[in-house]
User: What shape does this take?
Amino acid sequence: MILIVQPILFGIIGIVIVLMYMNLLMPMYNSMKEVSK
Assistant: This one.
């Protein structure tokens, strides 16, 4: 049971971390593009 649940749990945590990371980086990336014009 644990062998099945653990990879799924890690996958969900990974996706959440990536989404949070994207939410942090996208505004910074957009502001950098505006500055470089």
